[in-house]
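Reply to dn_fold:

You asked what the input looked like. This is it:
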Amino acid sequence: MSVDYVLQTTDLVKEFKGFTAVDNVNLNVERGTIHALIGPNGAGKTTVFNLLTKFLIPTSGKIMFNGNDITQMRSAEIANQGVVRSFQISAVFPHLTVLENVRVALQRKEGNSFHFWKSEKILDKLNGRAMELLESVGLQDHANSITVDQPYGRKRALEIATTLALDPELMLLDEPTQGMGHEDVDMVADLILQVAKDRTILMVEHNLHVVSKLADKITVLQRGAILTEGNYETVSADPRVKEAYLGVAADEVEEQAANQEAASEEKTA
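and this is what came back:
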């Protein structure tokens, strides 16, 4: 039985004036899974996302979505196909209410233009679905609150709700827990698990605890190329991954960890 891939790239390359930022990347994202793209700073993770959503044009290679070649499509066309992306920085309208933000996103499904000039009565027909989406991310009690007044974790949850409003088949989440405290990280991680039940997620994430909790498959990038792939147990045990993240050999990492543990025991003794 063949594996059902929703997204595949073949020898994807991006060069900037002689510098290769993405080097022959072959991704295979299986339908209905959470696939994480990880690597040290500068590994090319966000550049890959920019290529997939056509914020950047590939130097060479191919991008396939549901078996169709989308390499030459524009960003809006890709979104219409069902590939929707969130960004590292929360992208919501700060001076609208939480409900209004989701309603704006829902208008995108109605056509090619936003109806800011429409009467409130006409736009109210979107409120039912907007409230359903807010409830799905735990924000129903904050629907009428101004977005700028919300804590960072709620803004990220709101961004996931606005992404869901576009009814994506494939969600691309770019550093969804960046800049969060421990409680918000756990909340957003649980939220991602919840929304992943009905769709496929490809995520860039720096927090390895989150990756271990969420990802079915992990692709590790280093210097723009794939270093290794597999589940968390396989990837985390790879000495090359430890060296790529920490800049030291695996045996040195283990020695440093042992030294830190011994020092901690001395302090508590």
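The two ends are 58 Å apart (CA to CA).
Hope that clears it up.
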